[in-house]
Description:
- A 5-stranded antiparallel β-sheet has the order 4-3-2-1-5. A 3-stranded antiparallel β-sheet has the order 6-8-7, covered by helices on one side.
- The chain has 3 domains: 8-104, no CATH class; 148-190, SH3 type barrels (Roll), CATH 2.30.30; 198-290, GMP Synthetase, Chain A, domain 3 (2-Layer Sandwich), CATH 3.30.300.
- By secondary structure, the protein is of the alpha+beta class.
- It has 9 helices and 8 strands.
Amino acid sequence: MMALIKRFAFPLRVIALSTLMYIEVYHLARVLGTEYDYFADILIRFFIFALGLSVVISILSGFYRRWKKLDPSRADNVIIGLKNIYYLLLTGALIMTILGFWKIDFRTLFTTLSIVAAAIAIISKDFIAEIISGIIISFSREISINDYVKIGDQKGKIIDITLTKIALLNDDDDLIYLPNSKVFSSFIVNYTKREIKKISIEFEVMIQGLKTVEELETDLVRAISEFKQHIVPNSYTLKIVEIRRDSLALKFQYTLDHINRDLEREIRSKTVRRVVHYVKKNLNAAKAAAAENPV
């Protein structure tokens, strides 16, 4: 049923737009009488604008989807940007329509209420900044829907870009909404669009629980061997980041052939568990050796 509605949505909008334009051109609303003619005229013009804008946005989106060969169920930055512009213009038209019901002359309104308008601009400057930032981000190539990014201290997958906020799904499956202005002014790391998809897992190991770094590296590579079809061959490496008094800060790195958030999380979990298992095994072996050979 929904698919049928979506299929005929565009033709129905065109028919409704044509009907309203015909009514407006030939002043058919006058049959309601002079008392309602003015208000009917305002409403008809609003719906003509809304439907006309919707048709234009649909046509532009359709051409863009064909050009980019996008599936109808998918939306990228440009599609979202067009929708945001539609909502912004529609909101402005709705405000003007509501003011029109009171027969307010807009030139007189903005002239006589210049102080109020300035105050409103000052109060709403942050909201306006969010909208402008959102439109710029929507049409930029820096980030896109489904990109895995790091914005400031937040890291996750972008699932939506609205007029004022960006929705980010982090590694704990928490949905975080970031203001567009903050995103626009923050340092952004886009892991999806970088050429080298290197993953780093940092951890700390007690020195007494470690035989050799080479042995631990071999053990970790063996532990994630089931994912080797997704990992670039010979990209494994275990680095010593810092030597401390009783422990070593290590970094295990490998390169994925493509960014996959779920796969990365699964490999990370497998690696951390393997480290715990390795250290525990060596500590138990050390305790057993000490018990057999007491000083």
